[in-house]
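Good morning C.,

I know you're traveling, so I'll keep this short. The sequence:
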Amino acid sequence: MADANSRSITTNQTELHEKLDEIVQKHLNSEFKKPIAAHTLKAFNEVNEKVQAFAGPIILDSCCGVGESTANLAKRHPDALVIGIDKSSHRLDKHDVEYKQNEHGQYILVQADLNDFWRLAYEAKWQPTHHYLFYPNPWPKSKHIQRRWHGAAVFPFIVKLGAA
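The tokens, ready to paste straight into the viewer:
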């Protein structure tokens, strides 16, 4: 594994956001009406075919970046199908070719908007055994609370998908 060269994160928020409860309750009690993007629907349908044909555990690695975590999870869970999802084709295109499916378990990398992908997975009744979000949502300022997953309108679908 290479050393990380991520930029350091600075924030003006040192405690729980003062409106977090209010924001989460609003999202839990509201319908999320954002239309599903065509490119994410297409990507989901391709992955869903593999999920439906797979007899073992399903693991999600959301915001997987270059897919290193996805490959490592597949190696750790060789009986599972690990699905790494990221919105950036630029990051996914950097996936290290040293990871081989037969040596590191079974995994798929997919470019998709997670706001749509998670809803589609829920509607398709996916039941992941694990759901990983290793990369923190890069919106550290207090005013950006609704850009973080726990403050976003899609948060109820993360919860509905379940998993450890």
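Safe travels,
E.
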